[in-house]
Specification:
four-stranded antiparallel beta sheet, five-stranded antiparallel beta sheet, alpha+beta, Immunoglobulin-like
Length: 187
């Protein structure tokens, strides 16, 4: 019986693995993907990390934040329930990025390197926010650096990507001080 137990467990796991749901098919058109990337590109902002905004001390991290308006069905869900259930199938969940190039220097004119933020499977999902009276999904990148900064200058070139090899490149100018206020409306 002891020799049979591992075989039964292996067979059970194999059956379970084959019954797992298949990955959801990408349900968005190329036009919808291009429209999302245009929205993301148009709204990229450089912002201190939450920790830096709270502590108000030199930091080795910041966020690149962007947003896009939520579809009306999601806005209605939010109004009805006070929240939105993330099913990981909204168009923003399919957006990825990679860093094409960057050049950053701190106030001492030292070259500053990014630690590990060159690409990710998807943009980080930040809190919902209202821009121009429109409920929006905030997406972004948490950038970690090898040195601290009081002031950081330079640029980061991002390539936003969607399934179907749809891309949009944007060069983000960086001019950030750890004392800068949060640029989002309502703060």
């Amino acid at each position: 019986m002891k020799k049979l137990l591992p075989l039964v467990l292996s067979a059970s796991l194999a059956v379970f693995a084959f019954q797992a749901p298949a990955a959801a098919r990408y349900p968005y058109s190329a036009a919808e993907a291009r429209a999302l990337l245009a929205q993301l590109d148009a709204h990229v902002m450089v912002i201190n990390s939450d920790l830096t905004l709270i502590r108000k001390k030199p930091s080795n991290e910041f966020d690149l934040l962007t947003y896009y308006p939520l579809p009306q069905a999601k806005v209605d869900e939010y109004k009805r329930n006070g929240q939105i259930v993330n099913t990981r199938d909204s168009i923003g969940d399919f957006a990825t990025y990679r860093v094409k190039d960057y050049a950053l220097v701190n106030e001492k004119n030292e070259k500053v390197l990014m630690k590990d933020n060159i690409s990710a499977p998807s943009l980080h999902d930040f809190a919902l926010w209202t821009y121009d009276n429109v409920l929006s999904s905030q997406r972004g990148i948490q950038v970690k650096l090898d040195k601290t900064f009081e002031r950081l200058k330079g640029h980061i070139t991002l390539v936003f990507e969607m399934p179907g090899n749809i891309t949009r490149e944007t060069r983000v100018p960086i001019d950030l001080s750890f004392t800068d206020k949060d640029p989002r409306p309502g703060i």
